[in-house]
Design a protein that fits this description.
Its EC number is 6.1.1.21. The chain has 431 residues and is of the alpha+beta class. Helix content is 35%, strand content 20%. It has 2 domains: 242 residues, BirA Bifunctional Protein, domain 2; 96 residues, Anticodon-binding domain (Rossmann fold, 3-Layer(aba) Sandwich). α1 runs antiparallel to α5 and α5 runs parallel beside α9.
Length: 431
């Protein structure tokens, strides 16, 4: 009989294991705390959505819809479904479906996995994770600025450095229409200089040609008509307000007239936070205003603005910069010389856990608890700040020995098991 084939994860869809998962939990906790301070509320949408949601919301000629979505037909009812490649469309669908804007605007955030079928590379995977913030129902430029300040505050909170904010404005549909005509005319005059991808997009999505990474086309796109030159008074005023608020808060930014974002639903303010430390995958957070998406998915017209960051890229950049993310280690490690005392010991450990102390208990090997030396060795390897020694003599006195593992002196004291509530707080890392 042949051995059963070993099953492994799908390429580009990675397991996140301890201790690496502790870095993710740390980032997620930072996000939750910051979102609360900005009064954004958590929202969770399904991983699978109707394919039509993304075709309608993202645009049929975007790379995501054309090449990257994981789409399939439901065998039970024939529905066309897709693993979400991004979350904004799903958030908008839920807001519309549940009439969430009936009583006014909403500030929302999400965290979770997204899926795109593309070549895995550093910071870019087939299953990747996004954190996003969306403000729906607010037309003012101050909310655009608020969201940028929110992202910038997160970088400060987690100690992320060397991140540059780039801004642009895409104006309104009529302004983009006028620019589109001028852009197509310009590109038609230079069609011989276009690569295959640009020629394919020439009439379907010419704005995306400006975002090409092809070095041979850089001079061409640099000389192309700029959308910013087609903006009217209202669009310019909106953009000026965003810039003024950022300036007043000491947030540095640069103007990038070629910044267009990847989805069709953006208008007015668009922005990206970029770095040069992750190679070609330099964008770690991007977003902007999308005032027409809510109507596009079947809701009443309403303004909206938001951003999303790539969790993998943020964590990779932190690692690249040598930032020390706190490791998750237990507060105490319980050393138990005699297996016969386990019922009494575990009862004490449960009281400690109820008091908020993180406890790792030594377990038997099936042939006893092991020597004190081996238990102390495991206590040290666990990273715990304290070892609790439940020796026979201590237990007979209704006590436990608390031994420091991290002060270099090995100080110890004896504490009463009946008074756990009075001394448990001294064991906590946060205490």
């Amino acid at each position: 009989m042949s051995k059963t084939q070993k099953l492994v994860a799908i390429k580009g869809m990675n397991d996140i294991l301890p201790p690496e998962s502790a870095r993710w939990e740390w980032l997620e906790e930072k996000v939750r705390n910051l979102m609360e301070r900005f009064a954004y509320r958590n929202m969770r949408t399904p991983i699978v959505e109707p394919t039509a949601l993304f075709v309608r919301g993202l645009g049929e000629v975007t790379d995501i819809v054309e090449k990257e979505m994981y789409s399939f037909e439901d065998k039970l009812n024939g529905e066309h479904l897709t693993l979400r490649p991004e979350a904004t469309a799903g958030v908008v669908r839920a807001v519309v479906e549940h009439t969430m804007l009936y009583e006014g605007g909403k500030r929302l955030y999400y965290m979770g996995p997204m899926f795109r079928h593309e070549k895995p590379q550093r910071g870019r995977y087939r299953q990747f994770h996004q954190v996003g913030a969306e403000a729906l129902g607010f037309p003012g430029a101050e909310v655009d600025a608020e969201l940028i300040l929110l992202a910038n505050s997160l970088w400060e909170e987690i100690g992320l450095q060397n991140v540059e904010l780039q801004l642009n404005s895409l104006g309104q549909p009529e302004e983009r229409k006028a620019h589109r005509s001028a852009l197509i005319a310009y590109l038609e005059q230079n069609v011989d200089a276009l690569d295959e991808d640009a020629r394919r997009r020439l009439y379907s999505n010419p704005l995306r040609i400006l975002d090409t990474k092809n070095p041979a086309m850089q001079d061409l796109v640099n000389a192309a008509p700029r959308l910013f030159d087609f903006l009217g008074e209202a669009s310019l005023k909106h953009f000026d307000t965003v810039k003024a608020i950022l300036d007043a808060n000491g947030v540095k930014w640069t103007m990038n007239p070629r910044l267009v974002r990847g989805m069709d639903y953006y208008n007015l303010t668009v922005f990206e936070f970029v770095t040069t430390q992750l190679g070609s995958q330099g964008t770690i957070c991007g977003g902007g205003r999308y005032d027409y998406l809510i109507e596009e998915v079947g809701g009443k017209p309403a303004p909206a603005v938001g951003w999303a960051l790539g969790a993998e890229r943020v964590l990779e950049l932190l690692k690249e910069q040598g930032s020390q993310v706190p490791a998750l280690v237990p507060d105490v490690y319980a050393i138990v010389p005699d297996a016969g005392s386990l019922p009494q010991v575990i009862a004490a450990l449960q009281k400690l856990r109820a008091a908020g102390v993180s406890v790792q208990m030594h377990t038997s090997s099936g042939e006893g608890m092991g020597s004190m030396k081996s238990q102390f060795k495991k206590a040290d390897a666990s990273g715990a700040r304290f070892a609790l020694v439940f020796g026979a003599d201590e237990l007979a006195r209704g006590a436990v020995t608390v031994k420091s593992m991290r002060d270099g002196e090995g100080r110890q004291s004896e504490q009463s098991l009946d008074a756990i509530g009075t001394w448990a707080g001294t064991l906590k890392i946060s205490g």
